[in-house]
Predict the structure.
Amino acid sequence: MTSTKRIFLIHATPVAIAPINETFARLWPEAELCNLLEDSLSRDLRSAGQLTDDLKRRFCELARYARDAGAHAVLFTCSAFGEAIESSRRELDIPVLKPNEAMIDEALGQARTIGILATFEPSIGSMSEEFAKAADARGVQIRIVSGACPHALEALHQGDAARHDRLIAALAGQIEACDVLCFAQFSMTRAAEGARYASGRPVLTTPDSAVLMLRRLLEA
């Protein structure tokens, strides 16, 4: 019988918590989840305008805390901190996942022109770099188009989930031609159906792919 796996979910915004917990409940209910929220990270990244050495250090400290608390794996849920998460991964001897890597692998398996939609605009640059590195590793050429709607995230923080979904659907309908749309934030997951309808394209979200990858890694 497989022992229970303790997964630390590290969040830089509170609106990422519900989507990933709901996905675990659906796809891997046996996992023991520990949610760690440090929402000054997103504010400080927005203020700095770039990923600083101090932000990277703070990410590593959070990852070490999770390991010392008995984590079998760590999943970061904010896509704007890719380089900091990579630094954390080099320091730990347990799986440390970036929020997007499983979805990126899925997207590259089916598309070469990829649309990235974000509600936290700094995520676009970080995620585009992740796509470029993954494409280089596969030896394929891709084209990235992107769009951001920060007002959708503001609406979600204010409790107006319906407006959040409408704004994302509107953006999806406006994005230029691409083969697939990828959501940059866990918190955007609830808007996937509307975005598919508005754009007429497949929409990939991060939580499902991330949970399934973690389960494969830890139950292998």
